[in-house]
Amino acid sequence: MFKKxxxxxxxxxxxxxVVVALQPSEFRIERSVVxxxxxxxxxxxxxxxxKMQEWSPWKKMDPNATYTFAELSAGVGATMSWAGNxxxxxxxxxxxxxxxNEYVGIRLExxxxxxxxxxxxxxxxPEGNQTTVTWSMSGENGFISKAFCLVMSQDKxxxxxxxxxxxxxxxxxxxx
Length: 176
What we know:
By secondary structure, the protein is of the alpha+beta class. It has a single domain, classed as Alpha-D-Glucose-1,6-Bisphosphate, Chain A, domain 4 (2-Layer Sandwich), CATH 3.30.530. It contains seven helices and seven strands. The termini are far apart. This is Polyketide cyclase. It comes from Nibricoccus aquaticus.
């Protein structure tokens, strides 16, 4: 009887490992919003790590988080580190690419609760007096992340804060 239980347990573990291994390694999540303002009014809020804190959804998740900014807070080379609760975690972001009124690329390094590196970006597309802002994140999932994604939607977990942040960015820029 004990031998049958061990065999069944081994089969379940093998099936689980195979299912997890077959999950996609790469992910991409993106959300967009149309802001009633020209790109020149939106861009500074995506290209300056200090200004991002005015509309960041993660700042709301942990108002007591600590933020440390490098001397340069905007444009290529700007860096910001944070340390917060279990929702905010701990990490660092660095602007790696910046094209005025068009694009901001960021290297996002998570240190806690799990170490990982992702690429995030803000793409601005002017359309008359409006600007479509797309916030994206892409990266690779290791085995544990793939297993986690079997029970939690990564798209929902990241996408919902993106939607909230973009709505706050829209309200902030359109208010001015």
